[in-house]
Amino acid sequence: MKVKQLLVILMFLPIIAFSQKAVYRQVVNAKSNGSQFRELNVFKYVSSNLRDEKVDPEVLQEGVLLLPNAKELNDILQNQPEFLTVVIPVSANSSIKVDLLKHNIFASGFFVSENTKPNSPVSYKEGVHYKGVLQSDSNSIVAFSFFKDEIVAMISDNSGNRVIGRINRDFSRTHLFYNDFNLQVRNPFDCSTQDDGKTYMPSQLNRGGGNTTSSLGDCIDIYIEVDNDVVTDKGGTVNTVNYITALFNQCITLYGNETLSVAISQIMCWTTVSPYASLTVTSALLAAYQANTGTFNGDLSHLITYKGGGGQAAGFSGICNVDPDESKCVSKINSTYLNVPTHSWSVMVITHEMGHLIGSRHTHACVWNGNNTAIDGCSGATEGGCALPGNPAGGGTIMSYCHQQSVGINLSLGFGPQPGNVIRNSVLNGACLDVCGFTSCTDGFMNGDETGTDCGGSSCPTCPVTCTTPSGVTVSPISIDNATINWTAVVGALTYTLEYKLNSSPTWIVASSTISNATSYYLTGLVAGSLYDYRLRTNCSSGSSSYFQSQFTTVTAAACNSNYEPNESRAAAATIPANTIITATIGTTADLDYYKITTTVTSDFVVTLTNLAGDYDLVVQSSTGTQIGISENGGTTNESITLAARAAGTYYFFVYGYAGANSSTVCYNLNVAVTATVGCLAPTSLTASNITSTTATVSWGAVASALTYNVEYKLNSSGTWIVASSSNATTTYNFTGLTAGLLYDYRIRSNCASGNSSYAQAQFTTSPICISAYEPNESLAAAVLVTTNTNISAGINTSTDIDYYKVVTTVPSNFSVVLSNLPNDYDLYVYTSAGTLLGYGANGSTLSETVNLTNLPAGTYIFKVFGFGGVFNTSVCYNLFIGNTSIYPLEITALIEGYYLGGGLMRAVADPTNSPAICDTIEVQLANSSAPYSVAYTLKGTISTSGIGTFLFPFAAAGGNYYIVVKHRNSLQIWSSSPVSLSGTSGTYNFTTSANKAYGSKQFVFADGKAALYSGDVNQNNIIDDTDFNTVNANVNQFLIGYLTSDLTGDRCVEASDYSLIENHSGGLSLSKP
Asked: Would the pTM count as exceeding 0.70?
């Protein structure tokens, strides 16, 4: 029995070897065919502090906040490059890169529709979709979708599934980049698809056709319905389709990595209440979907909703099933979790349920491995009662329940070998499937009239030739123990393999089998004077070439000159000539070599020790044995000592092997270059750096004969030099105590043994005082209190400099903040005192930044200025103007008679798409409480469908008594019944509670008790009479439509209902006021 079981396992070993790398190979093919990948910095790093965007730490603590680069994003949307490399910041100082291929995720004839007219296309501008990999990571899979102001992406590799998506906050353009493995909450997905108890045949579990880079040839068209709850949440059809296509781009990329072609044929959005509105159980949703849809435009049909407990497929035979209900599934997606985008959860659900329809069961079903056992035990139980295996250490595959375990699901693993083969075989056997309606020279499939993968045919590049043996092979240079092999690049080469051996040896040594992006290789550790064989071959995607083979001989080591031995001590030092290379060896662990040279004039020495066989060191001593120079670099690094202006005499040069280093076959080279010391030279290359308002650092080139340097300085306007140092021993000096914004002269002189040089002179200008006027203010806690409505001039003077300012208001306020006169890319952020981000300006380049904030309550506000990416400028100050207007917010509640729908709500006449919906514009006036009741303040603004609007009057109005006047474009204006005292810091007035809230009770009262402005004063002459009636009547006869004054009911059509309304009032209603 054990033998049989072993045979079964061995039979499926080839399956285990299969891996999902189709997209990686498509990228490699594109590069080998010469395609140019355009590199773009699509994102701008913002912060790793997720609380800046109110991300709940109980949901996610690790991630990066990014902002799309508007210029680069627009470039992608306009030009849609076929090949793209996107740089993604992962911190302030580091990034990753992904290589992307543009691909078409839509079937021929794709269109978007709505349930009111399901077969009629609505206008929709598609985003741009890509698939790809992390650069040089064959185990990764990447999908990117680009839309206006939004980027949606998935990056999955061995570390897990990383998500890029927009933070779910109304005003925010910020995107979040995180690994879903770091979510503090787990994916709640539960699949309701029931196992049917059937097992798989071995032919279903084996790879049935195709290969890892080409398509199976057949395309699965997907029809998608989107439930009304999703459409409402996303704000309409266009936003919904953007979101759905981004999710399905990731799903289609995962299927493509399995060599399966999937395309979207139609997306139908429920813009009204759907038949699924009251359902909460997944099985009931699927049953309703089957009953409601019948036949559909595609091969598989998918309902996307927020309802239910997870997902469910009709079964495992959805491909080419004669019963369309068997080709349907439903998926509950998760748009966000407490404003964190959770695309990877939704992608897993959608891909999982479609996997069922194409034939795959769960990995914990007892149907796998050829012996009816389970692949993993992530669900905690098996389907079928077989033994429960363990959990996969590297994460689960798409058809698993490993999202319920700590290992999670790693989307880069795809379906895994056996479920993937089942799905591929199902597609291969699907007689009803057609070739995808789109053809692309970059999709990694051999389709259309191509004669190879993405090559040949009528419109694609010429197919590369058979993998060619390298040519132009040479060996140069060749030394005693090394040689460089050079060759000409081969078109289509992925890597090269180089092997070598001693001619006398039968065994080849592999120097490297993965030489890439190079046409040379450096061989080291060779034997001197020996004949070597070497061979080189090309490795292409289609296979490997034959070897090119040849020979070379290493250089024979010269016989070491031993004329200087014995020279083991200073007393036995050998006299050698100056300016001559001598060769010798450290032949044993005890060998020491002493040499000497005698000079007759003051001289400069440059002593070099090269061609070292080991860690040799070099020492120079005076005639008395005093050490005056040493070089001990370590390893086989050359040694060098420079000495200047040394008096005439005898000097000793000592060479030895550190820690016994020696070689009896390799000679070192020693050269003692001696020149008579020239006159003392003035310093050159004077440079000033690190300049602030009070300090500066100057530096200069070393003078060989200089012992010290004189450093002097003065104000350019002064005639008196100040001695900063008369014996500076280095080639730099730091000036302190300088005056800001002034031009300084400085000069440097060499002090030599033979005398002093002339001065070398230069200048620098200290930074203006404004650069550091408000320092220190590097943190929120250290924010400097400033005055509003005045110009602040300051600077960013280092790469780490950040300036924080704070303003304290005692009443509600409007802020208009402008950051201008920017020498570099400076950004502006505004926070509450608790650090909550309120708004920001991040235009890029030197464009001014502006942040406008309205109706902020009294409190403390923080303003942050910093250089993006660490840019700074020490000489130019920015200008920060914090404009502040104190306001008195007055909340007005008023209803318009003709717009009223009942229940305290009006029709959204001006803007039904806003949230909350806008009813219309009104004008609010504050009139003095005594005759002649002149108007003191006037504001225009909008009211919501509930009649509420907030009007921000100047704070000077606070404390006064005013009649409140409300005017509307086709209604009779009303005054408050009496003057209203605007006390405190804000106020409210509600006209709707009764007619007598208006002066003279001049309001219309509905049956529910709500009071409203009379509709009908079309010509705004404060009376509703025949002139208004005649205007409306004329427009009714003209069948006018649109946003019109004569449209009293607000339905954008002047009709009988408007006629009837004004007819009721045309007897002469007029304004009542004091």
From this structure: no
